[in-house]
């Protein structure tokens, strides 16, 4: 059978959360807002615009749209400097074998990410060719937990939502998959991602037989 395998990007395929964090921290510092790694958890899976709002809320700062736009551009420029040297070594452990296994089994693969920088990251890490569809922050209007990004991905792969499997590291993303009635697979911490139907610390913990069962089911 053909299933739709939909991958989130940040935190699932690559660990770009650390770069987002460093870039946001620079903005926060300028605004005298305390922004810790713990705060950064709130930003995972969340759009760029919403991320800035969360940081401003943390610091009780009100700002004009003009200023906000300026900081959004600044943040992205800073973030992009971290992507310049990115290569395949930045793929998270076990990702490549899973993509390869799915390809060999003729399974449709899509990206479902909130990031507007998704394509260059897939190119730099050399895995763009695995994806039959790429849906990212440029294609959606509603951010996770809204299921829009995953529903578009399944549609492009021409697979019904209930036959789609989503790999996610964020709570909002797991919720989006659940709302879409897709199989949600959390990649990361059990305590955080308890809403997911299956949870793995990372892809190296996922047996091939598990993926085979997903395809057969
Ligand atoms: P950008 P994902 C998300 O990617 C990140 O988790 C989130 O922290 C980030 O703010 C968002 O992309 C937007 O990214 O600024 O590059 O457009 O996890 O949905 O792949
Ligand atoms: Mg993510």
Written description of the protein model:
This is Beta-phosphoglucomutase. GO terms for molecular function: beta-phosphoglucomutase activity. Belongs to the HAD-like hydrolase superfamily. CbbY/CbbZ/Gph/YieH family. It holds the Pfam family Hydrolase. It is a single chain. With 217 residues, the protein is of the alpha/beta class. It has 9 helices and 6 strands, in the order βαααααβαβαβαββα. Helix 1 (17-30) packs across helix 4. The termini are close together. The model has no long low-confidence stretch (mean pLDDT 97). The structure holds 1,6-di-O-phosphono-beta-D-glucopyranose (B16) and magnesium ion.
Topology pattern, helix = H, strand = E: EHHHHHEHEHEHEEH
Tell how many strands the DSSP assignment holds. 6
Low-confidence stretches: none
* Ends apart, CA distance between termini: 8 Å
The radius of gyration over CA amounts to 17 Å
Residues in helix, %? 40-55%
User: SS-based structural class?
Assistant: alpha/beta
Rounded mean pLDDT score: 97
Bound ligands, named by name, code or SMILES: 1,6-di-O-phosphono-beta-D-glucopyranose, magnesium ion
Shape from CA axes? globular
Q: Biggest sheet, in brief?
A: 6 strands, parallel
Strand content: 5-15%
Number of helices in the DSSP assignment: 9
Spatial order of strands in the largest sheet: 3-2-1-4-5-6
Features:
217 residues, alpha/beta, six-stranded parallel beta sheet, 9 helices, 6 strands, binds 1,6-di-O-phosphono-beta-D-glucopyranose, binds magnesium ion, B-phosphoglucomutase_hydrolase, magnesium
Topology:
Layout: E1 4-7, H1 17-30, H2 37-40, H3 48-58, H4 65-83, H5 95-104, E2 109-112, H6 118-124, E3 133-135, H7 148-157, E4 164-168, H8 171-179, E5 183-187, E6 198-200, H9 208-216
Parallel strand pairs: 1-2, 1-4, 2-3, 4-5, 5-6
Helix pairs in contact: 1-4
The structure holds 1,6-di-O-phosphono-beta-D-glucopyranose (B16) and magnesium ion.
